Amino acid sequence: MFARKNDRVLVQGVTGKEGMYWLERMLQYGTNVVAGVTPGKGGDTALGVPVYDTVQAAVERGGVDVSVQFVPPLLAKEATFEAIEAGIKRIIVLADGVPVHDSMLMLAKARHQGAHILGPNCPGVVVPGETMVGILPCWLPHVFKPGTVGVVSRSGSLGTAICYQVVKAGFGQSEVIGIGGDPVVGTTTLDALRFYARDEKTRAVVMVGELGGTMEEDAAAFVPELGKPVIALIAGRMAPQGKRMGHAGAIIQGDRGSARSKIELLEASGAAVARTPDEVGVLLRRAMVG
Amino acid sequence: MRLYEFQAKQIFAANGIPVPEGAIASSPDEATAAASKIGKSVALKAQVLAGSRGKAGGVRFADTPATAFDISQAMFGTSIDGLGVRQLLVEEKLAISRELYLGFAMDRSRQCPVAIFCPTGGMEIEEIARTAPDQVVVCPIDSSNGFYAYHAIGMLARGGLRQKQLTTVAGLAAKLYRVYRDLDAELVEINPLAVCESSEIVAADGRIAIDDNALSRQKDLPKNVMPGTPLETEAQEAGLTYVELDGDICVLANGAGLTLATMDLISACGGRPANFIEVGGGAYVKARRALQIALAHEGLKALFVNVFGAFARTDVIADGFTTALAELKPSLPIVVCIRGTEEEAARELVRQRLGIISHTEMEEAAREVVARAYAS
User: Fold this and answer.
1) N or C: which end of chain B has fewer CB within 10 A?
2) CATH of B230-373, one of 3.40.50.261, 1.10.10.10, 2.60.40.10, 1.50.10.10
3) Do the chains contact at A247 and B126, CB–CB below 8 Å?
4) How far, in Å, CA of B75 to CA of B60, rounded?
5) What is the number of CB-based contacts under 8 A between chain A and chain B?
6) Which is more confidently placed, B281 or B32?
7) CA distance linking residue A258 with residue A246, whole number of Å
8) Which of B187, B263, B363 sits opposite A277 (nearest CB)?
9) How far is A235 from chain B (nearest CA, A)?
């Protein structure tokens, strides 16, 4: 969905410390990184990858399918605008701490231009054995392995922990999509389920959610249509209810948003809901092997 | 970060949204002086960051400055939802003929801001939203376009406003949207927006919550400390995510999702989480401070450290918490579970500095911490 083996990848903010660290990891994994952008560093190379001053220059040089950003949160909006205006259609925003008004603006602009955003505050995407765009430890063989289970997670650390459970249970992943933990994100759990419904390689889906927002409730309605087994883990069963956002929160969200509301709707829709990370593996085996 | 009503109203007034005449008071004398200056009946409103202030007796009325003294004296030192009343907003008492609701918030499902209007505002607004949702008009906003008076006219007309009221409230709504946008607010809410007998329209209450991610660029705002336990407040001031619960096992994990899942796991194993501290992002360099706060919690029976390094390196995290624990030397059973990037190096640090063999399976580790917590 967000990345395929031969996709041409651009790294925005490539020459920073984080950018260089993950550029090396991506190149080692075989990700087709074709260019980097750092204003003022145009003409340099980073680990053999040409660096440009602007996204436009990088795009003109040979085309870009996906952009991934290593920029501070307050600059993510500008970096995303720049990528959208240069015509890039898939943009991965990793930054943690992007103001929500910036996110909403980025998403509005992306909608108008037909671009798709993954994140903000997301770890990116892995197609095990093929490509990794983002900041996921794709090189750990007991966590990421080629296979047929599609994973979608709001949390980076918990999502990775669940990928380990998938491998421990004897399976691998068709794709791992980290959608990000912010209240407003460009790609939702439902978007990921829709993708996995069409993706022939994917035979089952593992959904890692948590309390807050209504993404899991929205996704639950699609589970019957998906036509593939869904195993869900919803973190936050024991957590106190989060801060209430005035009356407006109650008006918009009603009684939805708690872990219980999500679990009830997912179970009613036919998804198998695990109580613990280990149980994800057990339920997955039951769904795949019977 | 939430703002107090008086702060919200100062912002409203500065942006052309009418508010009642009023002043903030920190003592009965100041309340009396404010009431004298206003020169008519006043409302005395407790300034606390709690939701149901009106229902909890946090708003009272006084007809004369002398009664304002007595009533304010009775209000100072009381508490609402556990929050002490230290300041009162003294305001002219409005003669209200009708209460409206007007707000802006983000709709997480639609991924955009929404304007919300209800022709019946006041304390029962949530009940109305539940029982008569047709009365509430919710209007999605395209951030890249904005929200102007003509959008507001459409929304408010659907909500039943007509003529002068329609155009006046629409003008206020457009101004309120600019406050919402320019202050990086997650929420701005006027409830009630009062239509007075004089037909003036005034923000009788005000609520604003600012997006914490934007505080660094909202330099003119006051720095409010959000309500919490003393340790939660300490953690907030240190920039740490720390929450207290009513159990007895202390949880330290990296990332919000894993932290929540770790607490669920402890509960599923029969334990009770006491508190949790999140060490995501750059926070593991603050491990010492984090653990100092978390371990100060009374009645702890065990500490559970659960780390799964995705992009965060487990050896960096382990360096932080092992150094802190070697120094703090808590007399508690400690169980550690480590998986992910650089896990071998991390486990070695834990073995050397704490003499503990780390688990690699979190469920096994959770069972052990629960067993050891309640062993004696």
Assistant:
1) C
2) 3.40.50.261
3) yes
4) 9
5) 196
6) B32
7) 16
8) B363
9) 5
Q: Do B308 and A157 touch (CB under 8 A)?
A: yes
Q: What ipTM describes this predicted complex?
A: 0.92
Confidence of residue A244 (pLDDT cuts 50, 70, 90): low
pLDDT at site B354: 95
In chain A, residues under CATH classification 3.40.50.720 are 9-118
Are the beta carbons of A161 and B363 separated by less than 8 Å? no
Annotated catalytic, B189? yes
Task: Please report the DSSP string for A107-161 in residue order.
Answer: HHHHHHHT-EEE-SS--EEEETTTEEEES--TT-TTT--EEEEEEEES-HHHHHH
Mutation pick from A107, A157, A233, A243 vs chain B, by most beta carbons of B within 10 Å, is A157
CA distance A25 to A20: 9
Looking at chain B, how many residues does it have? Answer: 376
Which pLDDT value is given to residue A2?
77
Instruction: Give pLDDT tens digits for B300-358.
Output: 999 999 999 877 788 888 998 999 999 999 999 999 999 988 899 999 999 999 999 99
pLDDT tens digits, B32-59:
999 999 999 999 999 998 767 777 789 9
Third-level CATH fold of B21-92: Dna Ligase; domain 1 (3.30.1490)
Cross-chain Cβ contact A235/B261 below 8 Å: yes
Nearest CB neighbour to B209, from listed A233, A237, A245? A245
Over residues B282-305, mean pLDDT: 85
| Better-predicted residue by pLDDT, A285 or B226 | A285
CB A125 within 8 A of CB A152: no
- What's this model's pTM, rounded to 2 decimal places? 0.94
List the strands of the sheet with B59-62, edge to edge: B22-25, B88-92, B42-46, B59-62
Kindly report, as residue ranges, where domains of CATH 3.40.50.261 are found in chain A: 140-289
Q: What residue ranges do the domains of chain B occupy?
A: 21-92, 96-217, 230-373
Nearest CA in chain B to A245: B187
What is the spatial distance between Cα B251 and Cα B267, in angstroms, rounded to a whole number? Answer: 12
Helix, strand, coil abundance in chain B, percent, nearest 5: 40, 25, 35
CB contact under 8 Å between A185 and B111, yes or no, is yes
Architecture of domain A140-289: 3-Layer(aba) Sandwich (3.40)
Query: Exposed, middle or buried, A105 (CB in 10 Å: 0-12/13-18/19+)?
Result: buried
Class of domain B96-217: alpha beta
Q: Which helix (H) or strand (E) holds A11?
A: strand A9-12
Class of domain A9-118 as given by CATH: alpha beta
Active-site hit among B189, B232, B278, B343: B189
Contacts of B103 in chain A (CB under 8 A): 246-248, 251
The pLDDT score that the predictor gives to residue A241 is 63
pLDDT in tens, B121-173: 988 888 888 888 899 999 999 999 999 999 999 999 999 999 999 999 999 99
The structure tokens listed for B65 are 């400055």
Chain B residues with CB inside 8 Å of A137's CB?
Answer: 309-311, 340-341
* pLDDT tens figures, A30-82: 999 999 999 999 999 999 999 999 999 999 988 999 999 999 999 999 999 99
**Closest in B257, B341, B361 to A137, CB measured:** B341
State mean pLDDT over A136-149: 95
